[in-house]
Write a structure and sequence with these properties.
Radius of gyration: 21 Å
Distance between the termini: 31 Å
Number of domains: 2
Helix content: 40-55%
Shape: globular
CATH class of the largest domain: Alpha Beta
CATH architecture of the largest domain: Alpha-Beta Complex
Largest sheet: 10 strands, mixed
Length: 333
């Protein structure tokens, strides 16, 4: 690997000085040393400045910018991304961490696959107590390079988490951030990247996403998720640079996510409306179609069935996830 290859990691932050320390340390502990770290403080007004400045004194690769006023989450992200001048970049949330081999693994892969616009390593979604919730890339059918539109269709419902992604800077010339959809702007950005360029997927753990009550996505109400996925589906359906069958398939898969969200929250009427829109898509899954039918006429029966099925499945999945990924919890301490 060329020593001149540099990556910029942007950490947008707001009033999380203690978590920020761990995020910064996870960058400084990378086995690949050629990086720049930019901390973008959204006018926290607390100990954040002291934490950031201490690391700036300790390591010349760390830079710190503090806005004079809070400019909003998306504007802070845009500021950080707009400051990138290196060939590669990543975005690290202030409450997440990188595993030590992430940069080295990602850059080796990207150099070996020059057509790929980003590398996504497996990110473990984990609680503060070390319980493994989900590992989205473990659900992909395989690792390796995905050419358009395969990568786009594969990622819907199991999106790579930006914490574990290294992008080529050139992507910023081709894909814009959807500022009107802050809850799932990252999903939109990844979908629009994968519809235009090859991507590389690795199922090797590269990062940890911390799920906690104060995290932005975890604290949002169901109605915001509904609106966000509806917009995501609309943008896919109206993509002028996608073949019509692919655009329709992508839209249907996103709506299927929304359909399952409605069922999860027992919003049967809304689920039925979505089902009517994607009836042919749902008919591919007989069990799903049957569940909706029983939900409409015998909700108590399906609730009992789903409850029992859910307990069994959850126990099986949790045991497998804990066995395979909990060892990475040591990097959170």
């Amino acid at each position: 690997m060329k020593s001149c290859t540099t990556i910029t990691t942007v950490i947008p932050t707001y009033q999380r000085p203690h978590l920020l320390k761990k995020a910064i340390e996870s960058v400084l502990n990378q086995t690949y040393p050629y990086f720049q770290l930019l901390i973008c403080d959204n006018a926290s007004g607390d100990e954040t400045a002291d934490v950031a400045n201490e690391y700036c004194k300790r390591d010349v690769r760390v830079k710190y910018h503090c806005h004079t006023t809070n400019i909003g989450m998306m504007e802070n992200y845009k500021f950080g991304i707009g400051s990138i001048q290196t060939e590669f970049f990543s975005i690290l949330s202030d409450d997440d961490i990188l595993l030590p081999w992430f940069y080295e693994t990602a850059l080796t892969s990207l150099i070996n696959t020059p057509d790929a616009i980003f590398f996504a390593g497996s990110t473990i979604i984990m609680t503060q107590k070390g319980k493994v919730i989900r590992v989205p890339l473990s659900l992909w059918k395989r690792a390796g390079i995905f050419h358009p539109p395969e990568g786009l269709l594969e990622m819907i419902g199991k999106y790579p988490i930006p914490t574990g992604i290294i992008f080529r800077k050139e992507i910023l010339n081709h894909v814009a951030i959807d500022e009107e959809n802050p809850l799932v702007w990252d999903c939109d950005f990844l979908l629009n990247s994968a519809k235009k360029f090859p991507i590389v997927i690795s199922q090797k753990p590269c990062a940890i996403f911390l799920q906690h009550a104060e995290s932005y996505s975890f604290s949002q109400k169901a109605i915001l998720w509904e609106n966000s996925f509806s917009r995501l589906a609309y943008r896919l359906e109206n993509s002028f640079d996608l073949p019509a069958p692919i655009a329709k398939e992508g839209k249907n898969r996103v709506l299927f996510e929304l359909y399952n969200l409605y069922l999860q929250h027992k919003k049967i009427e809304k689920a039925s409306l979505i089902a009517a829109q994607i009836s042919s898509f749902i008919s591919r899954n007989r069990k799903t179609a049957l569940n909706l039918k029983i939900h409409k006429f015998h909700p108590m029966i399906i609730n009992i069935i789903n409850f029992l099925r859910g307990i069994k499945l959850r126990i099986m999945v949790e045991k497998k996830l804990q066995k395979q990924y909990k060892k990475y919890y040591t990097y959170m301490k």
